[in-house]
Each structure stands twice: as C-alpha cells, then as structure tokens.
Write a structure and sequence with these properties.
The structure is a homodimer of 192-residue chains. Chain A has nine helices and no strands. By secondary structure, chain A is mainly α. The model of chain A has no long low-confidence stretch (mean pLDDT 92). Chains A and B meet through helix 7, helix 8 and helix 9 of A and helix 7, helix 8 and helix 9 of B. The structure holds a DNA duplex (30 and 30 nucleotides).
Chain lengths: 192, 192
Amino acid sequence: MVTRAEHRRSTLLRLSDAAVELFEERHPDRPTAEEIADRAGVSRRTVFRYVETKEDLAFIRPTLWLEIFDRAVAEVADTPIRDRILHGAHQISLDIDADPEPVRRGLLVASRSPGMAGRYGAVNRRWVERIATEIAGPDPDADTAFRAHVLGSAVMGVIDAALAEWVEDPRGRPLVDLVDRGLDHLAPILHD
Amino acid sequence: MVTRAEHRRSTLLRLSDAAVELFEERHPDRPTAEEIADRAGVSRRTVFRYVETKEDLAFIRPTLWLEIFDRAVAEVADTPIRDRILHGAHQISLDIDADPEPVRRGLLVASRSPGMAGRYGAVNRRWVERIATEIAGPDPDADTAFRAHVLGSAVMGVIDAALAEWVEDPRGRPLVDLVDRGLDHLAPILHD
DNA sequence: CGATTTCTGTCACACCGTGCCACGAAGCGG
DNA sequence: CCGCTTCGTGGCACGGTGTGACAGAAATCG
C-alpha cells in the first residue's frame, strides 16, 4: 500500500523524466501533452492536474528546491543573510548531487526552448520574491523592501549564473562553490 | 500613402491598447484573441503575426524600450557603466512621460495576471542579457561574463523595483530618480 | 507602368487546458 | 474488518490557441 503523498510525488517525477526525455528527443519540435502522458503511464488529463502547462514539467526539480530552501533557511534563521543563502544553496546542492543528470538535462532543455524561457522566468521571479522577503525581514518599510528586491534580483543572478556554469560542466566545481564565488561579487552590499 | 513601417507600428500599438483595455475590463477573466483583434480592427490571424501569444500585448511598450536603450547607450558609449545605464533609463523615461497612461495600465494588468508573469519574465530575461553584455564589454572571459550576469540581474532588479513603485504612483518621483536611487545600492560593486 | 515584395483575411487543423462525471483506491472512525 | 468519506484518475466534450497554406490587396522598386 502506497501513501497518497508518495504516490503523487512519484507520479510527478515520472512525468518530469518523461517530459525531459521527450523534449530532448523531439528538439526543436515539442512533444504533445499526450505523448508525455503516455510515456509516464497516465492520461493526458492527469498531466494538467500536476502542472499548469506541459513546459513546467522541465522545471519540476528547481520548483521543488523552494521547499528545501525554506527548510534550510529556517534551520539557520539567526545567522547573517549571506550564510543563510549559502546554507540554502548547500542543501539544494546535496539534493542535486544525489541524482544530477535529470536536473542538468532539464535545465539544458529549458535553456534551449524559446517557449520555455517564459515559464522558467516565472519560477525565477518566485525565487526573487522569496529571497527578497528573506533579506527584507518582517514588516519592511518601503525603502527596505526596495533594497531587498534589488538584492534579491542580484542573488538570483548569482544562482542563475552558477547554474548555467554547472550545467555546462556538472563534473566541475560543485554548485555551492560557484554560488559562493558569485556571492563574493555582492559581498560589499550584502549585509543585514 | 502610409509607409509599411509606420503602418506596422500603428497596428501594433492599436493592438496593445485594445489588449490592455480588454484585460482591464475582463479581469479576472481574460479576453479572447478574437475580441482583441476585433477591437483593434484586424483579424485574429493578424494578431499572431505581431506577437507570439496574446499576453505579450500587455508589454509591447516595455519591449520597444530595448531599442531606445540601445540607441541611448550608443550615444554615450565611452562613459562609465553607471552613466550609460542612467542615460538609457533617462531616454526611456522621456518616452514614458510623453504618454504614461498606457504604460502604467499595461504594467498593472501584467502584475495582476498570473498567466502573464511568465511572459513578462521572458522580457525581463532579455533585459538581463542586454545589460549583462553592456557590462561585460566585447569578448569577455568566463569570469567577466559571470560577474556581468550577476550585475545585470541586479540592475534589472533596480529597474523592476523602480517601475513597481512608479506604477503605483505615476505622479510621484520621476522614473529616472527612482532608478538613480536604486543604483546607489549597487554603487560599491558597479564599476567597469 | 509592370514586376516584386509585404501585409492581410479566410479557412482548416492539431493541440491546449478545463469543467464535468463516474469509478476505484486510500484513509479513517467505529 | 466494514462502511463512509476523501482523493486521484480516466474519459469525454468544448472553447480557445497558435500555425500552415493560399489568394488577393497594397506598398515598394525598377
């Protein structure tokens, strides 16, 4: 007997893998929702019970990272902002290292398909907001919120650039190192 | 007799205005492509000769800003990066001031519609790349490109935050001032 | 002017994303 | 273990999207 949560999670990852495979095989065309559904062993209708558009299936894992980040940040809530972000990146890296290939291939597919830039941009923006609230702290005034948004975008830029480099060479430097190096560029302005 | 360039431009802006109006009227529902086409006085088919998706019609003006930015930056090509960006922002502000309402309403519509966050994210990303290449200069090495991407995201964050504040109160401080203030946060790290 | 290129509307088509309904399997209190 | 409820699913139908193909009008060019 399988719990509902386990079942949902495994179906989601099966859909994700099927989608990434098919987006690779069909490039530059795109698979239909039905093909993805068939390969994952579910009906077309069910696909849209897991994601809003089929393109979202390429970013399932990066989307799940938000939860990891939340938990990680909560663990070190009373440390400086830079440490919190690094700790979050570290926990995410551990998750990636457990099985890097699907992540890498998903990000590659995403970066090549123009139609996906939009959906990936949406994930990106959610991350910016998340990091900005982390920097702003509770009840920020207008100026603090403004500054937090700017720094949030900058940190997201670090993560983006780090991921882009890591995707090209997954056997190279660990993702955390790349993020660490990127944050160095922001060191003069990144403080609580 | 109307030149082709003029004709295309006026059709595009007519589509943009029709779309913004209808997205406002129909909120939280969304107008169909056919309704937008009818109001703009063209066929549904023609809409998709101007934009890839109907949601793009809310950002027509921000998209056109890229051209203004390119021209402005070229004018002051030999000044420090901060001045170039400020000059670009200044030229864009002049364009906005000529007719601010459509811009403001478009951005408001865009910020409220979840489906649009994605498409707006795509525009956002094009801006990040554009600014990053401006910062990186010609033939950047890997480290320079990495740093440029980080700073590009940060600058985009400034513009984003400035636009968000300006949209809320268009009679408040001019957009250039808001961008200027935002760039102050990046001053310690923003140099050539 | 005629030849050519660009823009348009019409039509047809595959596909997307969603509401609705019925059914089976998981969860839960007794 | 048993009934009742809740959740996840497939099937179907439907309005809507975005695109290829084609033919005609309008501009550009020589």
